[in-house]
Amino acid sequence: MWSITSERNAVETTLVESATLNRAPGSSPRMESNESAGAAVTNDHVSVEWILPPETLEMIFKRLPARELVRCSSVSTVWRRTISEVRGLSRSVALERAWRFGIVEPRVCYKHQGCLECAAESDAIVALVGERGVEVVDLKSETAVLKCPIRLVGKARSVCFYKQSLIVGNEEGYVSVCDAKDSPSVSEVQIVQLKASEGPVFTLVGFEGFVAVGERNGQIGILSLRDRACKVRLSGHRGRVTCIAHEEKENLLVSGSWDKTIRVWNATDLACTLVLNGHRASVESLAVTGDTVVSGACDFAARLWSLRSGECLLILPHRSNVLALSSSESHIFSGSYPKVVKVWDRWGLCLRTLRLNGSYVRNGIWGEEGKLVCVAANGEIIEWDFSNTLD
Question: How far apart are CA 296 and CA 262, in angstroms?
Fold first, then answer.
């Protein structure tokens, strides 16, 4: 069965075999490197020269993690030139160096008045759920663009973006759909309230004209935005549903619960296709990228899973509960208590540990190439921008 470890071992084996089989005839382990013929790999004891066609080098480099590309780029001029000429590889090397060695101070780009329950982000727009309602912040201008007071949406417990709408779940079991498109003031925001649950709405996500709502009895309510009613409830979890994510390409729902499990649902026929077991405490956060999902739990660990096979590909250790997660094609970002944010590559190496000065990350962290934004429980939106340190 495929795994990241077997993939890495296969690449390392390919390099070793290439060094053995493609060594220049008559060469000696001690001979001088000849960069025009290939490349030389040197350690404390052996210097081996071999000949590798450019297409073979390119194939091998594309299968290596970024941290190994950094090392390979310093081996020889030929390797460094090959990496720089292959689209995407040079960017990966620069980004790896930025995450690991870039010196950047955290910056508070916005301060919400009061403590926060949770947050959501879409295209540099952040929704903050606090004691007084919901506040929407534009990260580009670093200003609040919309405020929905508690009298309109109730005491909010969860929030998400879906297309042009802001969806808020409250303490009384209602879901408020706020059509904020082209609305310059709160008075012009159109709000539709749907009864979703008999108890608080702890988590929700929008998909395909529906809203999936996590309930305290372990069920997931599926609300139709068109019919404004709950169409069906999914059963399977044996504890509160704490987090839900949607994978768009295969149209999958992924849910985490107090029962320590993660369930994968086909969002078309609403059938449960996988149950992921491995966490030893309640699952608190999820992040889906491609055919993988990252889960964070109160067992001091985050896990990377395959949505196809259900296999656990990686375990990322922490020193406390993992409350917030984000992932991209190349990196994983995790927030844990107290006041720690970690940046990982998708091979399991922790590239950077960042610390907050004020409070811990509360269910809001987003990373992209060279940038990391997190929402702290004390109401601060904090940014680390490593993009200026890229080579």
Answer: 10
Range in 75-89, 175-189, 331-345, 349-363 the model is least confident about:
175-189
Strand, coil or helix: 277: coil
Residue 34: pLDDT above 60? Answer: no
The pLDDT of residue 47 is 39
Which residues does 89 contact at the CB level (< 8 Å), separation at least 6? Answer: 61, 62, 69, 83
For the cut 60, the answer to whether the pLDDT of residue 391 exceeds it is no
User: Helix 54-62 vs helix 4-21: angle between axes, to the nearest 10 degrees?
Assistant: 160
Amino acid letter, 217 = N
DSSP H or E stretch at residue 271: strand 271-276
Burial of 182 (0-12, 13-18, 19+ CB in 10 A): exposed
Poorest-pLDDT segment among 2-11, 18-27, 315-324, 354-363? 18-27
Pick from 305, 231, 326, 309: nearest CA to 270: 231
Q: Name the token pair of 283.
A: 């699952």
DSSP state of 112: -
Contacts of 294 (CB under 8 A, 6+ apart): 286, 287, 288, 302, 303, 304, 305, 325, 327, 332, 334
Would the pTM count as exceeding 0.85? Answer: no
Based on DSSP, count helices (H) and strands (E) in the chain, helices before strands. Answer: 6, 30
Token match 């903050």: residue? 128
Supply the pLDDT for residue 99.
74
**Is residue 165 a contact partner of residue 175, using CB atoms and an 8 Å limit?**
no
- For the record, the structure tokens of 217 come out as 């009895």
Q: What CA–CA distance (Å, rounded) separates 273 from 266? A: 7
Rounded to whole angstroms, how far apart are CA atoms 121 and 138? 10
**H-state helical runs in the chain:** 4-21, 54-62, 66-72, 77-85, 89-101, 150-153
pLDDT at 381 over 50: yes
The angle formed by the CA atoms of residues 66, 321 and 260, to the nearest 5 degrees, is 100
Distance separating alpha carbons of residues 316 and 318, to the nearest angstrom: 7
